[in-house]
User: Fold N-acetyl-gamma-glutamyl-phosphate reductase from Tumebacillus algifaecis.
Amino acid sequence: MNVAVIGATGYTGLEVVRLLMQHPELNVTAITSDSQAGAMLTEVYPHLQGLVHEPLQRAEAMELALKADLAFVALPSGLSTGLVPELLGAGLKVIDLAGDHRLSQSDYEQWYQKTPPSAEVLAQAVYGLPEYYADQIATARLIANPGCYPTATLLSLLPLVQQGLIDPDTLIVDAKSGVSGAGKAVSPSSHFVEVNENFKAYKVGVHQHIPEIEGVLSQHCGEKVTLSFTTHLVPMTRGILTTSYAKLTSDVSTEELLALYQETYRDQPFVRIREKGNMPATKDVSTSNFCDIGLRVDPRTKRVTVIGVIDNLIKGAAGQAIQNANLLCGLPQTTGLRTAPVYF
Ligand SMILES: NC(=O)C1=CN([C@@H]2O[C@H](COP(=O)(O)OP(=O)(O)OC[C@H]3O[C@@H](n4cnc5c(N)ncnc54)[C@H](OP(=O)(O)O)[C@@H]3O)[C@@H](O)[C@H]2O)C=CC1
Ligand SMILES: CC(=O)N[C@@H](CCC(=O)OP(=O)(O)O)C(=O)O
Assistant:
């Protein structure tokens, strides 16, 4: 299948291009940039010299449809809302990495403070978390690739929520991200001087991923879930670590919960469950599409603590988008994604 990468000069778009170089079935035939149209990607990123030969072009849907069957859209939120209907109308399938097609119109307006996509387009969107929605993804025309924090949080919590093992009212998620999560545009809060040797919470209580996480958990829980969710910026380039806490509804042991997680993710190639006493770190998954999960029950407090780690740019964005493209194409989910993490 021929694919276009929209926003190829951005961090996630660039990762899609890089990962697709080793994909046996998906060929990158078009790459776009608004500010660099007409230039070569290697002028912006010389490390790709000799590896990428397509020129950067503007994201014109009809022109892209002549070159590709599927588009990965890696634009800032708000922009894909305008482009996606044109791409769909031109006959392309779309995987949107932005938040635009993950929420209801009212939630999108409230949490992103932008104009939402039309109800007609939203009705076509399938939430692209392959571990839970593989069948719907396989037949979709528009896939809303999950957010980075929601990916780690949902994979960490859904086994517990589905089995009614935690009281959803007691749920707290403490999340930390590397700075590439903010994209390549420089802002005062992600500037080197602000981030280096520093550690800070941000968007406390107002993070745009709150309704996304609550929405999916509620679907699987059968009742409305609300959670306390706090994001932190860590002075590292890649990686997300989420720590989730909740009160257990029955006396279960760490061993029993680990067995449940092993069983839930037995056939999922990118979720790895740790042995008792072993907690994952961000480097364990760096540059790979894995999500590693560890947990422990505290019998004193009757709470469970679940640690989830992903690479925000890979399982949190580009890798998951390719996993979704594999499902769309009827390929094994691991096609082109079987890379071991880079530990140092
Ligand atoms: N970074 C991450 O870890 C994750 C990001 N996401 C989401 O994926 C999307 C892409 O993120 P990311 O790659 O980090 O973003 P970047 O800011 O790094 O890249 C954005 C891309 O969009 C292009 N673009 C086109 N028009 C505009 C415009 N008007 N203003 C700014 N950029 C424009 C830019 O290219 P050019 O300037 O050359 O035109 C650039 O290639 C976002 O919606 C983000 O929220 C989702 C999960 C994880
Ligand atoms: C470190 C950092 O700033 N991360 C970003 C992640 C943004 C993102 O993934 O955006 P979507 O809304 O498109 O999912 C943030 O917290 O806003």
